[in-house]
Predict the 3D structure of the following.
Amino acid sequence: MTRHLAAAVFLVLIGFTGASNAVAQSKPAPKTAVAEAPPAAIKNGVTVRAKYLSLLAGTSAAQVSPGGRVTLLVQVAPHPKMHVYAPGQAGYVAVDLSVAPDEAFTAGRPVYPPSQSFVFAPTAETLKVYSKPFVLRQDLVIGSSAAMKRRAAAGDALTVAGSFHYQACDDAVCYRPETVPVNWKIKLKP
């Protein structure tokens, strides 16, 4: 039994079941992208520190008009010697970016970058992981209702609520999955 699998079995045996719903839910296959967004390209950036990684959440544009498109960006930086699992890696909790539904916008599916291969030496198991900083993207189309146009004319901001779910591991141990709240604030313009 691999150490990662043994850690997962241990967590189940002690009664940890918080991740079971996230793993059991069926989601469409995630999109992958090749290009990374450098931190300078992230507007309205807010840093969120989690136990095993840091997030820089922001947008592709500082302002957007009703009916316009903006991309939510999350740069994920695992702490040294840590990795997180890429979508499509069976048997582990993969990273997942979620945006709470809201009538003010329509959200596309998150886009995940290509993963890196990680070989767990004791078992020669090859895994799909992220161990270096990477960027997740999710497009939004802002609603164009009369109410949104009034908000834009008043210079209001739109707050988008979401979360980032992940499980981090080092070379020997996997840690409990964690869900980190993430919010984006987008200034509306006429």
